[in-house]
Automatic annotation (TrEMBL):
It comes from marine sediment metagenome. PANTHER family: DNA-3-METHYLADENINE GLYCOSYLASE. GO terms for molecular function: alkylbase DNA N-glycosylase activity; DNA binding. This is 3-methyladenine DNA glycosylase. GO terms for biological process: base-excision repair. Pfam families: Pur_DNA_glyco (PF02245). InterPro entries: Formyl_transferase-like_C_sf, MPG, MPG_sf.
Length: 189
DNA sequence: ACATGGATGCTT
DNA sequence: AGCATCCATGTC
């Protein structure tokens, strides 16, 4: 079985697809972070915390963990492990592929830099219309799913510490952020 | 550098 | 019940 750090790296270059009433949007995953359960003080499941929000993290891998943050934005994660092992990969940035105009409309995107359409966890959820209704969705299904991309992009993986977890005492410097080197759609730290 | 924003999960 | 927190973003 793959550990979550391997899954995180594996997901880079894969295509995330969301189909809503024949409106297709998709993008290549170019930036991710791993959140590794009970021992990770940055994880929502730190110390085995079970709440209505984290429930899905304890189910079998391959499902969507979506949560709202700051009352404003959603974040999309992939549950990665077997039952009762709450580990996830947060998707932080996409390289838009299909339905760019739909995404721009959802984001009220005007004269902005095209690299800023989906270069952040909240931005990509808005662009892909991922919200609470996607909580727990099977990512091997046919509505919101991840697949091997037909388009291939360079897969040189860079590593860094995770973003915006200064509160996470011991875990804040863990090198669990992975992104594609030189890819312009990666978020700006 | 700062306001925004509300669900979430703590503590009483 | 009340309250501090937060895996951002956009605009200042």
């Amino acid at each position: 079985m793959r550990n979550t750090l391997d899954v995180a790296k594996y997901l880079l270059g894969k295509e995330l697809v969301h189909i809503i009433e024949k409106q297709i949007t998709s993008g290549l995953i170019v930036e991710v972070e791993a959140y590794i359960g009970p021992g990770d003080s940055a994880s929502h499941a730190y110390q085995g915390k079970r709440t209505p929000r984290t429930r899905i993290q304890y189910e079998i891998g391959g499902k969507a963990y979506v949560y709202q943050i700051y009352g404003l934005h959603y974040c999309f994660n992939v549950v990665t492990q077997k039952e009762d092992l709450p580990e996830v990969v947060l998707v932080r940035a996409l390289q838009p592929l299909q339905g760019v105009e739909i995404m721009e409309k959802r984001r009220s995107f005007k004269n902005n830099n095209r690299f800023e359409l989906t270069n952040g966890p909240g931005k990509l959820c808005q662009a892909m219309a991922i919200d609470k209704s996607c909580y727990g969705v099977d990512l091997c299904g046919s509505k919101l799913y991840i697949r091997e991309a037909k388009v291939k992009i360079p897969k040189h993986i860079a590593v860094s510490k995770r973003i915006n977890i200064e509160y996470a005492r011991n875990a804040k410097n863990f090198p669990w952020r992975f992104y594609l080197k030189n890819n312009l759609y990666v978020s700006k730290p």
